Amino acid sequence: MRLRTLPLSLSGTVMGVCIAGTIVPSLSHGTWLIFLTTALLQVLSNLSNELGDTLHGTDTQDRQGIHYSIQDGEMTIKEMKYLIAATALLCCISGLAMIWSSFGTVVAVEPLLLLLLGAAAIWAAMHYTLGKNPYGYRGLGDLFVFIFFGIVSCCGACYLCAHQAGLGTVLKASIMPACSIGLFSIGVLNVNNIRDAATDVATRVTTAIRLGGRGARIYHTFLIGTGWALMIIYSLINIPGASGLRWIYAITLPLYLLHLKGVWKLEGRALDPMLPMLVMSTFAFSILGGLGLLLHFF
Q: Whole-model pTM?
């Protein structure tokens, strides 16, 4: 289930829920369902990715990353399909409960639109590498990661908790942090693709393959730098006063710099530690950024 990816998927929702806490006086008692649904979607994505890479012949013994269950013979393809179906069902149940908890119904306009968005999230989680024409094999993974790990995750969580304040208010308060988390999330995918470029080139197209090793690292630096710039601008524009609380997330900056140094220096399998480093740095960034907002306003 690649549990080390879960903190990244939760980063956007943590930030979104914290931002919602600065908009409305109290959060729904069902806020925990947002985190549960997010984690289940990430697990669904991970399982589907493994099956898709196996069926397309991408995961071979030459792969630079860690090995997974089908590749090592611990699960059969049929067993994985059953597990994916069960996880998708859990996503639907948790998502319905999440929307019901927020709105008290699922038959009004807003809940129905969110149900459609949830269906899109399930489709995106399953079709990065799974299916006849997966978008991850056409170099579109970066775009989908930005949308679902950044915009949908952060703005969606904020809206579920503070929808009574209006969509405009929610977007104004959350869109820039959402973009930051989205860019860092693309960075995780990009490091993965840089590491696996030598074996991926036979079966798929990724941004790292298109740009080449040096170009992909320049792109990576752009992702991290822009993500930080957006959050700094957000802090200056949207958080009044001179309180140092709004800068708590700056504690994580050395981790990002160390990560960038590693990405530029390392190759192949040696890049693997840079993945969890960026995941945990982004998770800490979201927690501290959200906590800084809550402490500043309250």
A: 0.93
Sole residue written with tokens 């490091």: 191
What pLDDT does 125 receive? 94
Average pLDDT over residues 85-113: 95
d(CA 137, CA 55): 13
> Which tokens in the block code for residue 269?
């399998």
The neighbouring-strand residues paired with 138 are: 205
Answer whether 88's CB lies under 8 Å from 44's CB: yes
Q: Beta-carbon neighbour count of residue 266 at 10 Å?
A: 16
Give the tens place of pLDDT for each residue, 221-268. Answer: 999 999 999 999 999 887 766 567 789 999 999 999 999 999 999 999
| Alpha helices (H) in 104-206, listed in sequence order | 109-126, 141-145, 156-162, 167-200
Residue 101 CA, chain-centre distance (Å), reads 23
Q: 31: which 2 tokens?
A: 């806020």
Separation CA 26–CA 294 (nearest Å): 12
